[in-house]
Amino acid sequence: MTEYTQDQATFREVVTKFLQAKSTPTDVRRLMASDEGYDADVWQQLCQEVGLAGTHIPEEYGGFGFGPVELGIAAEEMGRHLYCGPFFSSAVMAGYAILNGDSEANKQKLLPEIAAGSTVATLVLDSVNDPNQVGRQLRVTGKELDGTAPIVTDAHIADVLLVVASGEDGLGLYSVIADADGVKISPQQALDPTRKLSRVAFSGAEVQKIGHLSESGLNKTWDQISVALAHEMIGGAQQLFDSTLEYTKVRVQFGRPIGSFQALKHRCADLLLELEWAKAATHHAAFCLASGQEPETASMAKAMASDIYMEAARAAVQLRGGIGFTWEEDTHLWFKRAKASEVFMGSPHTHRERLLSLMEEAS
Amino acid sequence: MSPDDIRTELSAWLDANWDPNRPLIEWRNILVDGGWAAPSWPEDSFGRGFDVEQMAVVNDVFAEKGIVGAAQAGPRRLAAETILVHGNADQKQRFLRPILTGEHAWTQLFSEPGSGSDLAGASTKAELIDGKWIVNGQKVWNTSAHHADWGILVARTDWDLPKHQGLSYFLINLRQPGVEVRPLKQMNGHASFNEVFLTDAEVAVEDMLGAEGDGWAIATTTLSIERQGFARGRNERPPREANEGSIYDEFAKELEIANEPYTWYPQREGRVDLVMKRAMDTGAIKDPSVRQEMAKLMCMSRAAQLAAHSAAAKRKAGSNEIVPAGSIGKLGASVIARQSAHVHTMISGADAMLSGPDSAEEGVIAETLVSVPAISIAGGTDEIQKNIISERVLGMPKEQRMDTGPFRDIKRN
What we know:
Oligomer: heterodimer
Strand content of chain B: 5-15%
CATH superfamily of the largest domain in chain A: Butyryl-CoA Dehydrogenase, subunit A, domain 3
CATH architecture of the largest domain in chain B: Up-down Bundle
Helix content of chain B: 40-55%
Structural class of chain B: alpha+beta
Largest sheet of chain B: 4 strands, mixed
Order of helices and strands of chain B: HHHHHEEEEEEEEHHHHHHHH
Number of helices of chain A: 11
């Protein structure tokens, strides 16, 4: 695995500084209670001033032209600060889907707007469980789209929906204007209120075809999204770990800091080991996406990041005791993000099966 | 010296001196005199003060020409590198040469039946009587002690001081009547270690390393060298098989003896390398629950490699960040070994009831299943590693100690 460069480390500092100011737990609580779920001004600053939505978008389409490694850095810090906004839906999910397509016209039209934040897009998948199940619900006949996707992130604020659907010649990527006739976006009550979900139903909605999507094309997009999500998750896991560790050093019971009890020390050591592994796997997966090597590392990263995020979340509640289970304490914000992210874009067991199939083929 | 200069000078020197039919020890004495036995050591200790890059050139030239180098295998290096750091000029002169030539094999005499994880609780006694140190006590887990000529020994010289302060470090000749070595058979059937009984064994005053009471500090040096060795792996292989000459036969014999205690070490790590093959050979690869456990194992195993590389790169870059490589890596190895044994068991099914040459992989799987428990004990138990990680890496508060004050008043086995 390659190490981060000085420029990449500086990039991380810039992102961290922005989020420390703009995505405090107070901000997160305010936004998760709102219908929109994001602050439009902060989103504009994030896109315009810091340019984050264009991190991985090539310069000719208005982005920075960095790769999955830098995108991972941004996602990791967003996960750490529990950033609420359409970055993941618009820049990562829709952005990658368009980038992987072969429609130059759509790239030129949509990517600069996505990078600038002037258009919010999201990717509509009828399964966010398993790429093998994608295209069973959403079907295109002629230029009309029918079917329902039960779980779509940020559709309620999206201008454009990028939809993966089955057409006459197999899977394809289509774009649909969000407020077009035949599109019904119904907000869902999400377990994790920091990432808004909708049910999106199409009945004869007019689509524009962006391109054919092969099985490997879909898997590539799935992998890219999974690796970015894994970064978000290890950022969140690190935050939970750090805050919990700090708590064990200051909380006193039986006349001593609870962190001096071996039961807690050993649990923290176990968490550190698993966290170090998940971070190493996740960072490596981004380098592999950039180089095209070791395709199984994407699933490795998503599976490991999912497991450690939930482990850290369980420990974060448990080691705080009763206070950890209260609404007032911030831990549950990350706990819920951990649970939702665990099953989003493939549960750990789904990714383990994917990675084993790849290793089996390779051996 | 530049890499080119080293290559030129060493090649010329070897062309003039190397003879594969020379007796092994005679050759190594020439190597020591020429300054090529341990070029990384300081100039006053048979070396040339070479750095890592310079050593890489030396090692390349040795490998290319199939040259037999200084003796490396077994615990002798622990002794040598500790003496290098803490020995006086006389001790370096007397002890380092026979280590390099292979004349003297060494063993480590630290652990005791009553002090395992708590190494500083050693109660082997050394008393100064009539100008000699007289040692009484029992040591255990002494790798290769049955072949060793000398031992590095930690013994208590003062019972009224706190436990870490009353220890001293000795270099003890094992070829004497007061030393009895008994092999210690393990649960996997091997006997890689020994018990060493010391009964009025003698150590000359000039063979104390450092000063009286320095024992714990010096032992810490040895242990850190040992932990680095854990990461490096120990098995040295003879140079190219095609080489001819009597020296290779002697060298192979030396290695066979030195490496004999370690033949099962790959098994204690769980034999992850055999998992995919076994799963395919047996058809267990089709079982979804086996696949899940295999995938977990592959994740851990690959991530551990990546984390180790990343830690090494940070160390090389001189980062001040605390990289918990040692204890984290050791704890991780235990987790991986256990998971691998679990997967091998799932793959084998009832065949895991069998062992010996007719069982799976000629008995290697069976040996794995009964060797893995060692990895979470040897070199510091998992529990001790977790204490180290939580206190030194994570900065968690220490537990209150029950073992302060004079050693003679402390509760012990």
